[in-house]
Structure formats: structure tokens, C-alpha cells
Design goal:
Blueprint (H helix, E strand, L loop, with lengths): L1 E6 L4 H16 L3 E5 H6 L9 E3 L10 E6 L1 H11 L6 E5 L9 E2 L3 H9 L4 E12 L5 E4 L2 E5 L7 E7 L2 E8 L1 E5 L7 H4 L11 E7 L9 E4 L4 E4 L7 E5 L3 E5 L4 E15 L5 H9 L15
Parallel strand pairs: 1-2, 1-4, 2-3, 4-5, 5-6
Antiparallel strand pairs: 7-8, 7-18, 9-12, 9-16, 10-11, 10-15, 12-13, 13-14, 15-18, 16-17
């Protein structure tokens, strides 16, 4: 089995684990691939054997990609893999880690399960946007955020689905999230939780300047189009909180469901609603203990 390692290289815990994880995998007959960034920064690389992921198409050689870090690490791994369908196993190294299926404590048992084939893949919807009639698509696993960028001015825009006007907004921005991203910025801004098995857009205004402006859930069968009134300056689109793209004055954004899904590794003992309860305290009150025994 060919196993790639993708990581948040700013975390010391990753560098502490790497010299242990790599030989552990190799002792079990696994071929390990490191990203070029890891290979460049690793000071102990001379004493280890591994291959290097030198291009995006090298992901096609991998049986799965091991993402070590937080949710941001998993999101960047998903963007790098793109439509290549390489399954991603996330292990969080501290922090929130809502998307991760493993922890430092169960790291080796999770890897053992993957090597033995005791796992499944969970397809996650990806969102795609084209800006100003451009040909290049911007994709995100969590969400796309449209705002004016730096400054404190309200953004004015209109939302259409299938060519029909939904509503117009005067707000700090708009969040267009996937079901996976519904528990991220969308939730913080008052949007609903959408289980990842569904295929839906959630559009949530950020600090709207009207009491009647509320989040809306829309089907993915029709494209969403966001336009800006004449005289409005340009705006900004941010994918998964990591990559920014300018929107020109008078431009528009067309958003669709991507023609591929991201394959996330999951396990039989994992439960989405348990994760909501334990990670977010969903439905819990002070002093209560949930059915899993967590505070």
C-alpha cells in the first residue's frame, strides 16, 4: 500500500511523531510518500527512506493520504487531491479537529485498521465557483465566503437560483457552505447544521442589515448566481478560509456542485452526531453528561 503524509508543518507535534510513524508504516510493508514541503523542512530525513510527492498527479499513486494537523490541514489536503479520489484520513494534533477521524492517542490503531482494510470512505460534496465568467473553477470542501475584503463597508448583492431571484442582501458578506462546512463559519453565523450525507447549498448572510434576512438551504440541481449592483466596487471570494480570489467591479459569481466528491476515510465506531455532542456540546447543558459519558 502507498501511503502519503500531508501535514501542518508548523506544529511541533507533527515533527515529534514523524520519526516514529514512518518506520512503523515501513515495518508493515507500506511505501511512504512525503510532500515536498515536509521533505525540505525535515532535518532528520537522511536517516529515513521514503518517496516524495513531486506533482499533483502523484496523488494517483497513493492508496490514501494521511493528513496530520487540524481541520485546515484536511481542507488543504482535499484541495490538493482535487478530483483524483485519493481517500483522506485526518488525524488532529490538538485544536478543534472536527473533520478528523483520528487522534494522537488512537493514531496507530487507526493506521492498523486502514492497512487491514477495516474502514470505509465517506464521499463529501465539493462546491465550485467561477468568477467573472472565467474558465477556472475555485473549489471548496467547507465553504466559499464573499465579502468586500478589507474595510467595514456593507456589501450589496443579489442571489439567484436557476435564473430566478431569491433575494438581495445588504450585509458584511455571504457564506455559501456545503453540508461538511455547515458546522464551520456557517454555524457561527447562525446557519443550520446539515448532515454530510445530503447534497445542498446553505447560504448564510454575515451580519445582515435587516431583521428579515435569514439563512436559506437550496438544492444543488440549479446553479447559484451572485451579482452586484452597478457602482459597487469589487469584492473578494475566499475558499475554505485559505485561498482568496478577487471579484472585479460589476462582476458575478456562479456557484455549482463540483463534478467530483472528496473521499474521507471513516470507521465503524465513528458517529456524526456523537461528534457534534462531544466536539461542540450540541444539545448539552451545564452539568449534564451525554450518553457517551463525556461532560
Amino acid at each position: 500500500m502507498n501511503i502519503g503524509i500531508w501535514a501542518n508543518t508548523s506544529k511541533q507535534s507533527f515533527w515529534d511523531l514523524l520519526p516514529e510513524v514512518l518506520p512503523w508504516l515501513q515495518d508493515r510493508g507500506q511505501e511512504v510518500y512525503l510532500t515536498q514541503r515536509i521533505e525540505t523542512l525535515w532535518q532528520e530525513k537522511q536517516s529515513h527512506h521514503y518517496s516524495v510527492i513531486e506533482s499533483a498527479d502523484d496523488f494517483l499513486k497513493l492508496d490514501f493520504l494521511f493528513a496530520m494537523g487540524g481541520d485546515g490541514t484536511i481542507l488543504s489536503a482535499a484541495r490538493a487531491v482535487g478530483a483524483r479520489q485519493t481517500p483522506i484520513l485526518g488525524v488532529h494534533l490538538g485544536g478543534f479537529g472536527f473533520l478528523a477521524e483520528g487522534t494522537v492517542e488512537n493514531l496507530y490503531s487507526r493506521l492498523e485498521s486502514v492497512i487491514e482494510g477495516n474502514y470505509t470512505t465517506y464521499p463529501r460534496m465539493v462546491i465550485s465557483a467561477k468568477i467573472d465568467d472565467g474558465n477556472k473553477a475555485v473549489t471548496a470542501l467547507n465553504d466559499l465566503v464573499i465579502d468586500i475584503g478589507e474595510g467595514f463597508r456593507l456589501m450589496k448583492c443579489s442571489l439567484y437560483t436557476g435564473g430566478r431571484l431569491v433575494t438581495s442582501y445588504s450585509a458584511d458578506g455571504l457564506i455559501i457552505s456545503t453540508p461538511t462546512g455547515s458546522t464551520a463559519y456557517n454555524l457561527a453565523a447562525g446557519g443550520p447544521i446539515i448532515t454530510p450525507v445530503l447534497s445542498l447549498f446553505t447560504v448564510t448572510p454575515i451580519c445582515p442589515h435587516t431583521l428579515s434576512s435569514r439563512p436559506i438551504v437550496l438544492p444543488t440541481e440549479s446553479a447559484l448566481t451572485i451579482t452586484f449592483p452597478d457602482g459597487e466596487p469589487g469584492a473578494r471570494l475566499t475558499a475554505d478560509g485559505q485561498v482568496e480570489h478577487p471579484i472585479s467591479q460589476g462582476g458575478k459569481v456562479v456557484i455549482t456542485k463540483a463534478d467530483y466528491e472528496v473521499q474521507m476515510v471513516t470507521f465503524e465506531d465513528r458517529d456524526y452526531f456523537q461528534t457534534l455532542r462531544t466536539k461542540m456540546g450540541w444539545g448539552q447543558h451545564d452539568g449534564e453528561r451525554n450518553s457517551d459519558g463525556a461532560d
